[in-house]
Amino acid sequence: MEKNTAESVKDSPSLFHSRVFQAIIMSGLFLQIGIWVRNFAVLLFVMEKTNGDPFAVSMISVAEFAPMFIFSFIGGTFADRWRPKRTMVWCDILSALSIFIVLITLHFGNWHTVFFAMLISAILSQFSQPSGLKLFKLHLPEGQIQSAMSVYQTLFAVFMVFGPILGTFAFQSFGIEISIAVTGAAFLLSAASLAFLPKDRVLEGDAAPTTLWEEMKAGVAYVLKKRELSLLGFCFLAAGLGLGFIQPLSIFLVTEQLGLAKENLQWLLTVNGVGMIIGGGVVMAFARNAAPQKLLIYGMFINAIGIAVMGFSTNLWLTLGAEFINGLMLPCIQIGINTFIMQKTEADFIGRVNGILMPLFTGGMVLTMSAAGIMKREFSLVFTFETAAILFIIGVLVILPLYNLKTETQATEQLQLED
Asked: Which of 72, 109, 187, 330 has the fewest Cβ atoms within 10 Å of its own Cβ atom?
């Protein structure tokens, strides 16, 4: 174990010199610019066109999140069948093409196609995202994976803070057509960044001709066979159910619990985003010394406390403090999950495992999001938030048996080598 740690420390400085890491981070940067400009430009444009019609606005979220639930497993299976570099490049090119088609239709007055832009990009991301994880697994030493994921998640955290500002500025300054054009250009720049990736390797699985259905069944069997992945799936479900209760109701923390104007929600979101940036940096600094399942357990537990405090709090500073702590811990959860999946999953199954686990989270979140309003009306805002906190605690209890898994796994591998 000491030898492995020493090797990880030795390898770590070369992370930022890795072509794979550089290409994926640059691609992620351009994608985040495009996504946030698109999301906020479309949101403001639809609100302007419909005079704030709630149904039209809700359809934006449907177009963005429904493909995550419907296409995640299919996309993950194809990501395992296809070459990852080629898959990511073509997904970005097709996303850009769909954006430019929407731009042409906008020019001729058909504004409803903005929903099409959201939908196509969201579908293609279900093929591209697991391919990116697969590239990390294939090309980075295991000791660098968690550090790489820390940087990757910190990039997302930065855009959680500055993305809305960027998107709002683009729409208000240049209008919907220029904003959509910027999105298309960002996707093309992402594809160009990925061109610097090494040539795709030919995996053993490429030589075994199997049907899509057989590979999907093999993916389900793989997750069920591996206890750690099955437990992680139950944890995903509990976390999704909990987040679904609180995500639509955050505005009521501001208006009901704190008695402030709804516009003050931006401060909660900003504090949460700053916490995410700091948390990502802290995890990145200590990534080599933290087992991913421990990051996940600590993050889930402290988030449960933060959610419970937010539900009870009627003090602005206490609520802001809890929101900051939640943001601080979110990278622990995200980085812990992604690193754990990559460490415990063979490269041939990365896409399918991701495609099975993510719909559990998304499906749970969509289910409780639809029930959150009823829950608040029939009981109370406090009851709903405390229920969400309890669901997070249940998620912690489910994965608690994995706390010392790293030592057990290494011991098993050592015995197998001796045999």
From this structure: 109
What one-character-per-residue DSSP string does 187-239 give? HHHHHHHHTTSPPPP--GGGGS---HHHHHHHHHHHHHH-HHHHHHHHHHHHH
| Tens of pLDDT, residues 126-162 | 888 888 878 877 777 877 777 787 788 788 878 877 8
- CB count, 10 Å around CB of 378? 10
Per-residue pLDDT averaged across 315-319, rounded? 92
Residue 311 near residue 392, CB atoms below 8 Å? no
Residue 285 CB burial class (10 angstroms; 0-12, 13-18, ≥19): exposed
Is residue 208 packed enough to be buried (19+ CB in 10 Å), middle (13-18) or exposed (0-12)?
exposed
Position 415, amino acid: L
Contact by Cβ (8 Å): 127, 120: no
Q: How many Cα atoms are found within 13 Å in the side-chain-facing hemisphere of 240? A: 19
Instruction: Examine residue 342 and state whether it is found in any structural domain, yes or no.
Output: yes
Hey, what amino acid is at 193? S
pTM of the model: 0.74
- Which ranges in 247-291 belong to alpha helices (H)? 250-252, 265-286
CATH code of the domain containing 286: 1.20.1250.20
37 lies in a domain?
A: yes
Give the model's pLDDT for residue 419: 44
**Long-range contact list for 170-175, CB < 8 A, 24+ apart?**
170/37, 170/40, 170/41, 171/37, 171/40, 171/41, 171/44, 171/45, 172/44
Q: Which two tokens stand for residue 262?
A: 């709804």
Assess whether pLDDT exceeds 60 at residue 12: no
86 shares a domain with 19: yes
How far out from the chain centre does Cα 15 lie?
A: 22
pLDDT at residue 182, rounded to an integer: 92
- Judge if 179 and 217 occupy the same domain: no
Tally of domains within the chain: 2
pLDDT at 10 over 60: no
pLDDT at 392 over 90: yes
